[in-house]
Specification:
Shape: elongated
CATH architecture of the largest domain: 3-Layer(aba) Sandwich
Order of helices and strands: EHEHEHEHEHEEEEHEHHEE
Largest sheet: 5 strands, parallel
Distance between the termini: 47 Å
Radius of gyration: 18 Å
Number of helices: 8
Number of domains: 2
Amino acid sequence: MKRILLVEDDLNLADGLIMNLEGEGYEVVHVSDGSVALTEFSRGNFELVLLDIMLPGSDGITICKGIREQGHTLPVLFITARDQTEQKIEGLVAGGDDYITKPFDIAELLARIQGIFRRVAWLALDKEQSDNFEFDGRSVNFKTFEASGPGGVVQMTRKECMVVKYLTEREGEVVSRDQLLDAVWGYHIYPTNRTIDNFVLKIRKIFEDDPKNPRFFETIRGVGYRFSRDV
């Protein structure tokens, strides 16, 4: 039974989510105040955090950053309002794995959660690559999310690792933004392609000597990106 930490201050919404998630076989722990979310998180062994962005006490993005700063890599799914486009992007860059916009259908939420767990399994199990991928003195571990580059050792997020994994598995191929969105997030409905661009920018800062003139993670104008190693 997978354990989910639900952080939501709308008690009516929370009650409905708990009923439906428990009906699908998940164990749910609920807190309504952001100020106690990290404390409750530290008490349990969770597989997913379902996290509202707008909360009393502490907002969801701050909570997500706190989880990542503690070294935890479990997936975080944000619950957002329809007009929170910038916060959606900020949340994803901060380490969130996905988001769902209020009002939403419970079937969509369950599909998002199932998709997250499938992609977690894809990242963990790979017959083509070992856990540790190395290139030109750089490395990334797809199990621990630890990477090393010119600036030293860095802890990456799950999504950053998934973007790197997808590109490196297709070395030399041009990969479109839509391909990355579909593979890493599972759907195309995102605020702008800037979501992917922001992730690639962070990845370049980890692995490139000069992020503004990338050698490994190239932009193919009008199409997407390509990973290649110097010969």
